[in-house]
């Protein structure tokens, strides 16, 4: 099979789109760090630049999904309120906290902390439904946070700026918390609006929130005063790490389903660590790789348990009418 035929086959079954989506999301931290290296830009200014450039692309996603099959009924006022709340937690607060954290920690550690968000989703679900965690769930979460602790302690001890690593890690963990809340809220809305339309609407709303924050807290001209290198990084973030991955993920889900798309998404931390090594000169230590392996194993165990639970629930509910048309 020649290279052209290989890529056509990947595109037809969705694997290529899933890989592109994972790669695009994983490069976001790299572009942020490159911007910080290029100039002393404020986090909110850089985020405003990213969202200014991404806003037309989010509107493009809304236009593409205007006749999507996921839409159920008309877009109501309640739908609009829910989209605004999702935008607040998702692309606005989660992104802002992440940008703050990347001022202090490496891109590899940032991706590792963000990758723990499924554990937070599980905790929030157990609190909401008053469920007791199984032994397997507790063990998987313990392994996950053990790995995170290994990587975090190494980064703290590797430099004389341990306090900054702690501050940055707390900011990124706050980003993971807000993203987990966003993720929890997307379930019903994705079924109602479709993933692409929801991403476009929530992204557009969050862009306006970020720009409002910027104009209230920063001089209006500070964005235009940034050098070309920072604008290039912002443009790459907007295109490669914000809108296109959402589009690619939607295409992948259509072709190979959510389970396989999520499995490919597990490549994200690995891609970030190696991209940080290649483009930013960040060292790859045995401690970091050990931490990565533990975190990925813990998350894999959690996702496997969740998938098994979903299958059991589906079998138990066979023959019953679905609550979602």
From TrEMBL:
Topology of this chain in the membrane: Multi-pass membrane protein
Location in or out of the cell: Cell membrane
Chief subcellular location: membrane
GO annotation, cellular component aspect: plasma membrane
Protein name listed in UniProt: EamA domain-containing protein
Signal peptide boundaries: none
Membrane-spanning intervals of the chain: 16-37, 43-63, 83-106, 112-129, 136-153, 165-184, 196-216, 228-250, 262-280
Domain of life: Bacteria
Pfam family, one: EamA
Gene source species: Pseudomonas fulva (strain 12-X)
Keyword annotations: Cell membrane, Membrane, Transmembrane, Transmembrane helix
Record domain EamA: where: 14-150, 167-300
